[in-house]
Design the sequence.
């Protein structure tokens, strides 16, 4: 089969994604390894050649940490969210919208694709607001940092993304956003990925991290979860830390029409392609209808 007049022949399993959008979030820990990042870039370019439209959101936590440490600026987290003051958000913007974003654009170009880097600020793409109140982010230590620069997406205008896709571009998105108040907000990349997948009606949301999926207390991986199970696991403390915003993003996406969301290991070769063509065979897949249809969730070893 020749796809959209291109010479690339589509491998089996991709047919249901032709012409549709797949949102891919790449964690900062994966961006720190150029070999892994280049392999992911190659797969993203392959998707585009098959008339599948990847929209890439990236993080950069380790890289932000490194620069904050070098500058002597304290940094803390609560429930996976970086507590941000003015200096922290300035560093985050420098790292995310500058170094990491353009590096990923370069890797996509190196792989033969056409990418353009933007942030949530550009074209009014994602408008953010600050967290509702300081009480939502409890003091985790005596070095507590004001959460007034932690953002949450309140509006996603997909005009710029659809325009870039129509021009044959692969959008590479930094999770730095602006509020209606003109302030810059540091928004969790998983959170933005979920909001963007929901707004675009994505066929699938892939959250690439450095673990094989969502784990139980004994280190075994859940093969599938629904929103009700996720909330129960959060209450029990089995889901905690950085996995909380990931799964909240998945719930947001699948509750808004995204077919499925998957949390999976981005270090595994061809993990993006496997996730799309063999749904449920890698990572933890989240769908809105698992409980309704009485699917059985299994625990599997990552080995």
Sequence:
């Amino acid at each position: 089969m020749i796809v959209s007049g291109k010479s690339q022949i589509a491998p089996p399993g991709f047919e249901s994604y032709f012409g549709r959008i797949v949102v891919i979030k790449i964690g900062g820990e994966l961006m720190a390894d150029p070999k892994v990042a280049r392999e992911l870039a190659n797969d993203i370019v392959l998707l585009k050649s098959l008339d599948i439209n990847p929209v890439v959101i990236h993080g950069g936590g380790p890289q932000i940490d490194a620069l904050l440490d070098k500058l002597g600026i304290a940094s803390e987290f609560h429930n996976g969210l970086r507590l941000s003051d003015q200096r922290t958000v300035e560093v985050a913007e420098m790292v995310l919208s500058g170094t990491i974003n353009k590096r990923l654009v370069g890797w996509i170009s190196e792989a033969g694709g056409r990418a353009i880097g933007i942030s949530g600020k550009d074209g009014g793409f994602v408008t953010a607001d600050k967290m509702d109140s300081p009480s939502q982010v409890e003091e985790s230590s005596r070095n507590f940092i004001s959460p007034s620069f932690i953002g949450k997406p309140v509006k996603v205008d997909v005009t710029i993304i659809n325009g870039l896709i129509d021009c044959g571009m692969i959008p590479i998105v930094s999770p730095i956003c602006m509020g209606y108040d003109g302030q810059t907000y540091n928004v969790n990349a998983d959170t933005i990925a979920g909001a963007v997948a929901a707004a675009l009606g994505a066929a699938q949301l892939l959250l690439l991290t450095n673990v094989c999926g969502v784990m139980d207390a004994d280190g075994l991986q859940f093969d599938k979860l629904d929103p009700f199970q996720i909330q129960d696991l959060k209450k029990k403390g089995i889901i905690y830390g950085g996995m909380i915003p990931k799964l909240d993003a998945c719930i947001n996406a699948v509750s808004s029409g995204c077919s499925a969301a998957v949390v999976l290991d981005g270090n595994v070769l061809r993990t993006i392609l496997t996730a799309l063509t063999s749904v449920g065979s890698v990572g933890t897949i989240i769908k809105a209808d698992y409980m309704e249809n009485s699917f059985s969730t299994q625990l599997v070893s990552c080995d």
Observations:
- The longest strand covers residues 150-156.
